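Annotated sample (chain length 491).
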Amino acid sequence: MSQLKVYNTLTRKKEVFKPINPPHVGMYVCGPTVYSDVHIGNCRTIVSFDVIYRYLQHLGYSVRYVRNITDVGHLENDSDEGEDKIAKKAKLENVEPMEVVQRYTNGFHEVVEMLNTLKPSIEPTATGHMLEQIEYVQAIIRSGYAYESNGSVYFDVEKYSEKYNYGDVSGRKIEDLKNNTRDLKGQGEKKCPLDFVIWKRADPKHTMQWNSPWGKGFPGWHLECSVMSTKYLGDEFDIHGGGMDLKFPHHECELAQNTAYSGQSQSVKYWLHSNMLTLNGEKMSKSTGQFFLPKQIFEGTTELLEKAYSPMVVRFAMMQCHYRSTMDLSNDALFAAEKGLARLKKGLESIDILKDGDQSFLDVNLIEASLESAMNDDFNTPVLVANLFDAVKQINSSVQNEKPITQEDRQKLKGLFDVYVTQIMGIQLIESSKSSDDSKTIENDLIQLAVDLRNQAKKGKDWETSDLIRNELTKLGIQLKDSKDGTKWSK
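Output written by the structure step:
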């Protein structure tokens, strides 16, 4: 059995995965800031780490998966200035900030549930850990790496860099950061422009504020994750995950805070980062119109896509790109994923019609080894999918040529599809509920109705309508085969 290797952002290389305290694994992933609807880029990160979580469990590890909800302290420009994103939204809508938090937390949960992600072991919120955050700030002050200034508390990056390396996660050099950092308005309270806030003094009009030893204020965005990850996973834990955009400054500042608090310079053993999504090769952006929400994909209500795609198709599309690679989410990619998913499902169904025999012409052990090898190579789902398609090709060939398979290998092969497609990739190939059976019956009836209408058009020599119906059915993945006995269709 090959060993699991993961790409560690901290060391810039793949490493054999060795938990600190096996068989236990601690994994923390940065969750959403709940001030708006969750976007599809967030979903990619959540799905990527859901697969990692699933695979670690498959390997037999007992995983404590912590994923936070940021419900205070994330300012507009992701630094130390501007308005709190949640407070600003609450003011615009004339509601309480916690109403905003609850609404978008509910929406986030609904979408990721549709994408079939597992719930984390713990889902802490920043506002639920205010006492711990104040104590954490006090400890960093005592360690000499933070200072109070006019009611705010800042992390002293230069002092920290005398002993540790600020820049380990992002690969940046402190001298370059100094040269490229402008002295912005309001940063006169800082000793150095690189210093970042860990407790922010609140303006009297600020709606989200708490009492502290330094006056009324609220925690810094970076502080929250340090506090919640170490509270539930310890001063040293195995995996910290998040999107590539969080490497700097968020994760860089987290690591510095962790180290200043505990003295452990390697508080996280493996830093894992998922990459960005693009749309038709361009960055997703609300301002340019190159943007849609997950539900718009599922419901087909965005003009940027030709039709609706189910959550399982979207999830499967994500599996066909490595989590560390940029993924282009286009109509072509989703349509290809839809066809690929149908191909996998048909391959699974074909296992049951393989001919019984005393020996197998399929090497099921070799197929299993290829699937395991792909996932052990830094959770390489695109290679896993390619190997599954190769297995389907072998199954189809065996069916066509009437090659036998033993009952033992038949069950093992079906088990591999269940493990790697359903349990690890989280793709539901078979819907067993009565409602799904009913919807399939309705769907089949509608397809047959379209076929009948086409035949009527052909009979009346209305070739334009006949061709239109055929083309539209083809777009939906429905193949028509005309013969002297009539028209047959298949998905």
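Annotation: The longest strand covers residues 237-243.
Annotation: The chain has 16 helices and 17 strands.
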